[in-house]
Amino acid sequence: MIITLGHTKGGVGKSTLALNIAIERLHAGSDILLIDGDQRQTSVSKAVGIRSDAGITPTLPCVILDDIRSFRQQVGLLKQKYNDLVIDVGARDTGALRAALTVTDVLLLPIAPESVEIWAIEDVIEIIREARSIRDFRVVAILNRAKPSGRDNADTIAVIREYADIELIQGSIGSRGAFSSAFGRGLSISEYRPLNPKGVEEITLLLRALYC
Ligand SMILES: Nc1ncnc2c1ncn2[C@@H]1O[C@H](COP(=O)(O)OP(=O)(O)O)[C@@H](O)[C@H]1O
Ligand SMILES: [Mg+2]
């Protein structure tokens, strides 16, 4: 299965979730490849590089795809070698996002309970609708960096629900420093110590919803 983490907005948590999903699939025994399709900010492959330099196992296979023209073709070839692909796409370069949407099975949109992120749904939905008019794929949103209290989470969920073409995943990913700290070490939240049980549970539920 191919899962693409994509959005027209940066800083929403695409790379953070891509790394966590890929590592959790790896632990589950899947034959997974993480594709860094963010030409300008190859953060996910940097995190994998740190993981590799530190000798952390299991080793996470990762490639950078930086040529948009051959993106679709390259993914097609990689799909023959790996059962599972997770693609992290940069925000500014919608070319890579559009290319990924021609091959993906699932588009995962992280959305935080912030006005700017809610407004940004309008930009990405146009690209999604255009891509889906040619080929259908699953579009799922996850509330990322959910707040511990207040009404912002519920308000954001209400807005996402207004989009009939977006499936909202039950549960959310909380705003937890452990996600940032783990990413900087090339680790998933379940590998990071001290253990953050709530974060681990959130990622477990996300994986269950994606690979059901
Ligand atoms: N659930 C979370 N809790 C805390 N920090 C987060 C969370 N998700 C993302 N971040 C932080 O937000 C910033 C942007 O995340 P990143 O995954 O790089 O976004 P994107 O790839 O969409 O640009 C990073 O500093 C990251 O550590
Ligand atoms: Mg990123």
Explain what this protein looks like in three dimensions:
By secondary structure, the chain is of the alpha/beta class. The protein has a single domain, classed as P-loop containing nucleotide triphosphate hydrolases (Rossmann fold). 46% of the residues lie in helices and 20% in strands. The chain has 8 helices and 7 strands. The protein has helices at residues 14-27, 43-53, 68-81, 94-101, 115-132, 152-161, 177-184, 197-210; strands at 2-5, 32-37, 62-64, 84-89, 106-111, 138-146, 167-174. A 7-stranded parallel β-sheet has the order 3-2-4-1-5-6-7, sandwiched between helices. Helix 1 (14-27) crosses helix 2 and helix 1 packs across helix 8 (197-210). The longest helix is centred in the middle third of the chain and has 18 residues, at 115-132. The N and C termini lie close together (11 Å). The model has no long low-confidence stretch (mean pLDDT 96). Residues 14-15, 38, 41, 43, 88 line the site of magnesium ion.
Helix-strand blueprint:
Blueprint: E1 2-5, H1 14-27, E2 32-37, H2 43-53, E3 62-64, H3 68-81, E4 84-89, H4 94-101, E5 106-111, H5 115-132, E6 138-146, H6 152-161, E7 167-174, H7 177-184, H8 197-210
Parallel strand pairs: 1-4, 1-5, 2-3, 2-4, 5-6, 6-7
The protein binds adenosine-5'-diphosphate and magnesium ion (MG).
The site of magnesium ion has 6 residues, from helix 1.
